[in-house]
Amino acid sequence: MSCGAWKSPASKEEQLRLTRSGKRSTGVGVVAVLVLGLALPASAHVQSKYDGSDTNGPLDIMWSEFSHGHGKNDWSKSVRVWLCAYTQRRWRTGVLRRNAIYFELDTRGDTAPDYYAVFRPRGNRLGGDLITARTETKRRIGGYRYGGKRGGCVYFKRRHIRPIKQFVRWQGVTSFRSRRECRRQCFDFTRRYRHYNV
User: Fold this and answer.
1) Does 145 reside within a domain?
2) For residue 19, which of 25, 35, 58, 198 sits 20 to 30 Å off, Cα-Cα?
3) Among candidate residues 68, 35, 74, 46, the one with its CA nearest the CA of residue 155
4) What is the pLDDT of residue 77?
5) How many domains are there within the chain?
């Protein structure tokens, strides 16, 4: 798959090995929880998950979210879907020119990603691409920053993904490399969650 600076890691074994090379631990901040709640519209049904501190670099995910408008059982009436990541440290939007934040979405229930929602820099602002895994087609989607430069969200129309099952599996992933902290590339993977849409 050709997606600019972003590419999916080759194997889970390599991902885990690289991620574990930079493990550390910190406490959970109450401020992070409050800030994350401000990222999405009040009417959205939000699935928010804590990831903790488990890799080096500024793109270590602390919280991740999958949400859609309206109530829990109103997926069919929803217009938009939001995917958000809140990190342990601040990061410049421009860092995404050489590194990556993305979400894998499984809409067919076979655990393989069917879509990738990739965070992209649009000048000094945040945007994104929704990439269809099978055809590698790319759709430009919206995005924005929040939480004192520690958070970012991408969003797209619900009709752009077509779940076959009654849920969407989602997982947040980051990839970062620098001479000082991550010479061999630091990956961070949230757990894979189910977001029920009916």
Assistant:
1) yes
2) 35
3) 68
4) 55
5) 1
Distance of alpha carbon 125 from alpha carbon 147, whole angstroms: 14
* Predicted pLDDT of residue 44: 56
Q: pLDDT by residue (tens digit) across 73-99?
A: 454 555 788 999 999 999 999 999 999
Closest by Cα among 107, 166, 171, 153 to 134: 107
DSSP 32: H
Q: What are phi and psi of 79, to 5 degrees?
A: -100, -40
User: On the CB side of 91, how many CA atoms lie within 13 Å of its CA?
Assistant: 30
> What is the value of pTM for the model shown?
0.78
Cα–Cα distance, 179 to 31 (Å, whole number): 31
Q: Which domain holds residue 110?
A: 12-196
Single-letter amino acid, residue 33? V
Residue 132's nearest CA partner among 100, 107, 165 is 107
> Which residues in the chain land under pLDDT 70?
1-44, 69-78, 197-198
* Rg of the Cα atoms in the chain: 16
Residue 104 domain-assigned? yes
CA distance linking residue 114 with residue 127, whole number of Å: 20
Other Cβ atoms within 10 Å of 30 Cβ, number? 8
